[in-house]
């Protein structure tokens, strides 16, 4: 079989659709649900098993052995796959790897993965013995009733259970023998699938005749209340079966422990006896016959108190059953929500999102933010369904751990197929024609890998900022927007960040790319603040109406575009920036987002270093000099002074203030602390000799060029 269909659910019963076995195993291997699994493992390690079980219920639930149409019930069965689902639990940590090896090396194992709690395995088994082949043949003959299917399935399950218990020397969980046995999704990088065995499995053509649906009726005891037998009936106490006589005798003995059959108390005794017989499952007709035989000589009216007892007990049992069947309001609300809506908490945007399952105008649009109107709509739907609750109660249920966690970055990246080795990042980089292709290729690869690491990690940051320079109208911003797949379009921001603005600062945590368009408009003072933001690893804020401030990890990477070649200003170095001169842009080549991000993720896992260090920083600063706007003080310095040469005789040692005074006279440069600071930075940057005079003033070794003119 090329693939095996798997039924998916909303909750644990209502069918939501179908996927495939290989897709599920790929999601488990790639870590689609890794965050929840890590949380479960952490809770188990802390001994918080109940909390771990609650989190586990947030994982998607599947059935492989049987597929269903509407609900995970026998009348809804549509297909039987001859693959048995087994559970092995409660393994010691030292047993896990050895057990995994034995499982995966066995020829009957179709697939296996580590369970969500990390102390056992989920196995999918296709037995290939002569015995099981005969059972499969029975399922290939026309039609098969559900009862027959259950019988065959139990035999297949027992064969698989016995085989693996003998192989592994551990006990297989016997509670998984039902056809409807399912499994929770998990995370296991070493999840195993036997592709060769998968191809050998052929679908079973037999049509399954499901059992008829049972009518919805209150749960009742199997005891029937009947009218007393006529006196002329031929039935006698001797007609009662031995087990009925035994039950009656036990009931009499039990009642005699608390009361006596005597004058003035006979009705009470017989009423209590009727209650006891009813609870033991003895029908009223038989109880009356046996009671007449036991007590009829002393008290002729045995029937009335016994009959009253059966009527009273039947009604009270029915009322109690109805009360038991009526679930608490919170369970009713949660069941309704699970059946009609998908609700999740977006961890990046810190908001609730929902998706209606019903066939309505809004269905099929995917998840969208939960707004006040949506709470009201769900509240009305609950009332229409006969579930009465307060709006604040509904909000409390939805805005709780009930909403499953959703991370758009991990959800997309861990679902990607493994990288096939093609250099997709270089292909995307080549859609830009630049002055220095080698520098651009290397820098862009580092930036993309850094973007992925910053998106996935709460600690690591991407401190490299690519600046695309070209003439106006080339389409730099349009090219930047194409960097993200459609799933991440909402996590793109276009504009300069204002560090003093709380909403702007929050973008560091809620966006994956911030495109600083018109970068040449950044003022010198703003650039210093911007450099601090680029190196910032988190944002601490208090949301409106919240009591405490929360620290949000930064997940964004920066990129910029400019029409000005000389867009950098800091004389002290610009190692966080990589200006690239763009001469052409290709808009026709489609962007292979899955390939690009699968490659970036693979490089990251292999330890690719995406930051610059050592001599690389020196080379980067050297490249950036072409894109730096030099200060007038720095430019005038080399008009009037230079570094001494070995043969120079007119060498002077001058303080920075004296040099600045001459620059102000001949170069019209202002004299103030800022210009003096710029001058000192320039003198030190270009390696002018220094010494300290008797007044502890730093002097610089210079040659006055005017003396040679």
Automatic annotation (TrEMBL):
Record-annotated Virulence-associated protein E-like domain positions: 418-628
Query: Which segments carry the region annotation Disordered?
Result: 210-236
Matching entries from InterPro entries are given as:
BT4734-like_N, VapE-like_dom
Q: What are the residue boundaries of the BT4734-like N-terminal domain, all occurrences included?
A: 55-192
Basic and acidic residues biased stretches: 212-222
Note the superkingdom of the native organism.
Bacteria
Q: Which Pfam families match?
A: BT4734-like_N, VapE-like_dom
According to UniProt, the name of this protein is Virulence-associated E family protein
């Amino acid at each position: 079989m090329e693939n095996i269909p798997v039924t998916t659910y909303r909750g644990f019963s209502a069918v939501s659709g179908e996927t495939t076995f290989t897709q599920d195993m790929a999601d488990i291997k790639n870590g689609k649900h890794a965050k929840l699994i890590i949380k479960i493992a952490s809770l188990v390690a802390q001994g918080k098993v109940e909390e771990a079980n609650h989190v586990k219920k947030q994982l998607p639930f599947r059935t492989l052995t049987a597929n269903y149409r509407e609900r995970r019930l026998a009348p809804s069965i549509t297909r039987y796959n001859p693959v048995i689902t087994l559970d092995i639990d409660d393994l010691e940590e030292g047993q896990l790897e050895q057990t995994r090896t034995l499982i995966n090396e066995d020829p009957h194992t179709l697939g296996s993965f580590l369970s969500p709690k990390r102390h056992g395995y989920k196995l999918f088994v296709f037995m290939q013995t002569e015995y099981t082949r005969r059972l499969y043949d029975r399922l290939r003959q026309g039609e098969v009733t559900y009862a027959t299917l259950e019988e065959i399935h139990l035999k297949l399950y027992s064969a698989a259970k016995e085989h693996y218990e003998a192989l592994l020397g551990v006990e297989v969980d016997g509670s998984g023998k039902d056809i409807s046995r399912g499994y929770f999704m998990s995370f296991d990088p070493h999840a195993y699938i036997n592709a060769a065995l998968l191809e050998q499995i052929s679908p079973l053509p037999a049509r399954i005749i499901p059992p008829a649906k049972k009518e919805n009726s209150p749960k009742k005891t199997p005891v029937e209340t009947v009218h007393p037998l006529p006196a002329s009936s031929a039935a006698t106490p001797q007609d009662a079966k031995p087990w009925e006589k035994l039950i009656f005798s036990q009931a009499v003995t039990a009642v005699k422990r608390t009361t006596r059959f005597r004058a003035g108390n006979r009705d009470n005794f017989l009423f209590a006896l009727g209650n006891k017989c009813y609870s033991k499952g003895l029908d009223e007709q038989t109880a009356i016959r046996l009671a007449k035989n036991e007590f009829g000589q002393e008290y002729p009216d045995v029937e009335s108190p016994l009959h009253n007892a059966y009527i009273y007990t039947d009604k009270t049992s029915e009322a109690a059953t109805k009360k038991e069947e009526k679930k608490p309001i919170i369970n009713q609300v949660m069941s309704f929500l699970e059946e009609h809506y998908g609700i999740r908490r977006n961890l990046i945007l810190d908001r609730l999102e929902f998706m209606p399952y019903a066939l309505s105008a809004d269905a099929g649009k995917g998840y969208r933010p939960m707004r006040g109107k949506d709470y009201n709509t769900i509240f009305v739907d609950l009332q229409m369904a006969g579930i009465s609750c307060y709006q604040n109660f509904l909000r409390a249920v939805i805005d709780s751990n009930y909403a499953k966690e959703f991370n758009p970055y991990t959800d997309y990246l861990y679902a990607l197929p493994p990288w096939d080795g093609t250099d997709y990042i270089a292909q995307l980089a080549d859609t830009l024609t630049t002055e220095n292709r080698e520098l651009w290729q290397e820098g862009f690869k580092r930036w993309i890998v850094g973007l992925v690491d910053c998106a996935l990690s709460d600690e690591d940051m991407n401190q490299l900022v690519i600046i695309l320079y070209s003439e106006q109208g080339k389409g730099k911003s349009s090219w930047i927007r194409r960097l993200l797949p459609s799933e991440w379009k909402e996590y793109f921001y276009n504009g300069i960040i204002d560090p003093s603005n709380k909403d702007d600062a929050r973008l560091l945590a809620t966006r994956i790319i911030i495109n600083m368009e018109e970068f040449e408009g950044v003022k010198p003072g703003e650039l210093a603040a911007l450099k601090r933001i680029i190196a910032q690893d988190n944002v601490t804020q208090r949301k409106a109406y919240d009591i405490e401030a929360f620290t949000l990890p930064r997940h964004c990477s920066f990129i910029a575009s400019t029409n000005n070649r000389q867009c950098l200003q800091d004389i002290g170095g610009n190692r966080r920036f990589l200006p690239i001169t763009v001469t052409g842009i290709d808009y026709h080549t489609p962007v292979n987002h899955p390939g690009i991000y699968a490659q970036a993720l693979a490089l990251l896992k292999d330890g690719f270093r995406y930051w610059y260090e050592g001599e690389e920083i020196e080379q980067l600063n050297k490249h950036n000099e072409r894109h730096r706007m030099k200060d007038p003080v720095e430019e005038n310095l080399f008009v009037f002074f230079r570094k001494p040469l070995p043969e120079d005789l007119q060498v002077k040692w001058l303080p920075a203030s004296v040099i600045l005074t001459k620059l102000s006279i001949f170069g019209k440069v202002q004299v103030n602390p800022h210009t003096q600071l710029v001058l000192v930075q320039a003198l030190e940057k270009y390696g002018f000799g220094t010494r300290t005079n008797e007044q502890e003033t730093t002097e610089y070794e210079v040659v006055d060029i005017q003396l040679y003119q």
